[in-house]
Amino acid sequence: MPLTDIAVRKATPADKQYRLGDAAGMYLEVQPSGAKYWRLRYRFEGKQKTLALGVYPAVSLRRARESRDAARTLLVKGVDPGASRVAVKANREHLRQTRSRALPESGIVSSRRICRSHMPRATYAV
């Protein structure tokens, strides 16, 4: 039976962690500390894997289900959702580093009328 928002809200911590199942491999993991984590269990190339979908209440039940559906769509296309997330994060980091190096060269920092002695600090601040 699918979870409801009320059931998720009322999930209380126990002595050991436990899981409340939703549907299609998604569940809420409740820790003894009271933390609640959305997880998705899936199988890719014969291996059982778990994908973290977020922390409740920052990620609502609706948002967790949307993330689950997106991951399932990737699985249907033959893409591992966990590996895809890692690749996207690495690409984002690469772009961030590339942009931060390009700013001083493009003149964006120098257009702010910054003294040369402050240039290294200004580069990091941008």
CATH class of the domain at 5-91: Alpha Beta
**CATH topology annotation of the domain at 5-91:** Double Stranded RNA Binding Domain
Please identify the structural class as seen in this structure.
alpha+beta
Element pattern in H and E: HEEEEHHH
CATH architecture of the domain at 5-91: 2-Layer Sandwich
Weakly predicted, low-confidence segments: none
Mean pLDDT: 85
Instruction: Give the beta-strand count.
Output: 4
Strand portion, in percent?
15-25%
Strands of the biggest beta sheet: in what spatial order? 1-2-3-4
Main β-sheet description: 4 strands, antiparallel
Taking the alpha carbons of the first and last residues, their distance comes to: 50 Å
- What share of residues is helical? 40-55%
Number of helices: 4
**CA-based shape:** extended
CATH superfamily (homologous) name of the domain at 5-91: Integrase, DNA-binding domain
Question: Cα-atom Rg, whole angstroms?
Answer: 21 Å
Describe this structure in words.
Belongs to the 'phage' integrase family. It comes from Pandoraea anhela. Keywords: DNA integration. This is Prophage integrase IntS. The protein has about 130 residues and is α+β, with helices and mostly antiparallel strands. It has a domain at about 5-90: Double Stranded RNA Binding Domain (2-Layer Sandwich). The protein has four helices and four strands. Strands 1-2-3-4 form a four-stranded antiparallel beta sheet. It is extended. The model has no long low-confidence stretch (mean pLDDT about 85).
